[in-house]
């Protein structure tokens, strides 16, 4: 089925590995209308210099999250994170927005509470290793990103 228009994609990121994983998905998200919610840090400022970014602290307050999601009206919210992503996934679910969570490689051995919740709230879970397909019902293998 062909898409009639590019998706409005909201990428939610902290700094470090989460940012690297989302940047590695660039071949997919660059075909769409993207906006980022990110925690201001040296690497996020540099890496997202040419992107539309809403800077937020971690954890972001509920009003900030709700206002951002309602203002940007994304078709899908994508994150590999935990803390900041959790509130966005909750808001997205309440507003009927599709959510995609990418399991980072460090999370394959240490899935913490908020990561577990993000995975449960996600409509789609992306994994990087075949051995992780059985960890999440309906998970999609994307392979190692870098």
From TrEMBL:
Top-level lineage group: Bacteria
Alphabetically ordered keywords of this record: Transferase
Provenance organism: Paractinoplanes rishiriensis
GO MF entries: transferase activity
Annotated protein name in UniProt: UDP-N-acetylglucosamine--LPS N-acetylglucosamine transferase
